[in-house]
Write a structure and sequence with these properties.
By secondary structure, this protein is mainly α. It has two domains: 130 residues, no CATH class; 101 residues, Receptor-associated Protein, CATH 1.20.81. It contains eleven helices and no strands. Helix 4 crosses helix 6. The longest helix has 56 residues.
Length: 302
């Protein structure tokens, strides 16, 4: 009787905790921010890129998730998703609200699969396991988004000095900044950094100043070297310094920092290899002398 009362109390407490969590997380409606891709496309008069939420067959099923996502008021998570959607290039043109809806659907799907697998395989339902896997299902799309954004930022970091060199050379030969960037985009339209430069040109065409457009790019791409380069470009523009020289100097500094970092990593590589080498040496010693030690312990050596 005591065990039954304890189980009912624990189940009721868990149910109340889930209700309070859902109630406070989805209490108020949240305003969504249109992704930058859609803003530029709409401002230029072209057709707005479609997402899975715009597909006629999926709209009835995804509409409920969007309604729940509108009331999701965890602002820190929304800011986190916005930063990583911008850094990843957002190839699917999702807004923060739509991505939260995807997370909610993934969580629901994980919970349903866990429920049926538990009932079919284990023949009982563990509420703790169900809740843990449901929460993990919510964060699976977030982990995937972070992985994509981190890899894209690394690619931009590798490409950045070469792009700056080419833009600086073209400006040194008489091209303007916009003409040099247009040439870079035309030659390599699929490059990640060139795509960001295309957004910069679109902002300038829509009336923003070059310094504002570059600062917005630095906000989208969380790369310290890019922020320092953009700061140097804006300072050179205000002081009247030739921009081609600034770009080449920044590219040389980035290469120097990269070479210094490579030297540090190579110097620390020997220390990192010490532990595996010691473990391999111990394994070889055990393999060679292990049988002799066992025979000596048994008195069978002589």
């Amino acid at each position: 009787m005591y065990d039954l009362i304890l189980q009912i109390s624990i189940t009721g407490f868990l149910g109340l905790s889930i209700f309070m969590l859902v109630f406070f997380a989805f209490r108020f409606r949240q305003c969504d921010v249109v992704p930058i891709h859609r803003q530029f496309t709409k401002a230029l008069g072209a057709n707005t890129p479609l997402t899975i939420f715009d597909q006629p067959l999926l709209k009835p099923f995804l509409g409920a998730a969007l309604i729940w996502a509108q009331r999701f008021q965890v602002q820190s998570l929304r800011t986190y998703l916005r930063q990583h959607l911008d850094a990843s290039g957002n190839p699917n043109n999702y807004s923060v609200q739509e991505y939260i809806a995807i997370c909610l659907l993934c969580s629901l799907l994980t919970g349903i699969i866990t429920f049926f697998m538990s009932m079919l395989v284990l023949l009982y339902l563990d509420l703790i396991v169900l809740m843990v896997l449901t929460v993990i299902g919510f964060f699976i799309p977030i982990f995937a988004l972070k992985s994509n954004s981190d890899s894209r930022v690394r690619r931009i970091s590798k490409q950045l000095p070469y792009t700056l060199d080419l833009i600086g050379l073209m400006m040194g030969s008489g091209s303007t900044f916009n003409e040099a960037v247009i040439t870079m985009i035309r030659d390599q339209p699929s490059d990640d950094f060139n795509q960001e430069l295309q957004f910069v040109l679109a902002e300038i065409d829509l009336g923003s100043s070059r310094s504002t457009a570059l600062r917005n790019m630095a906000t989208r791409i969380p790369l310290e070297s890019l922020r320092s380069i953009i700061g140097a470009i804006n300072q050179a523009e205000s002081l009247g310094t030739p921009l081609s020289d600034i770009l080449r100097n920044q590219a040389d500094m980035m290469r120097m920092h990269r070479s210094v970092r490579a030297e540090k990593l190579s110097a620390s590589a020997s220390l990192r290899l010490m532990l595996p080498n010691v473990m391999i040496l111990v394994a070889v010693v055990i393999f060679l002398f292990g049988p002799m030690i066992i025979k000596h312990m048994r008195g069978e050596l002589f």
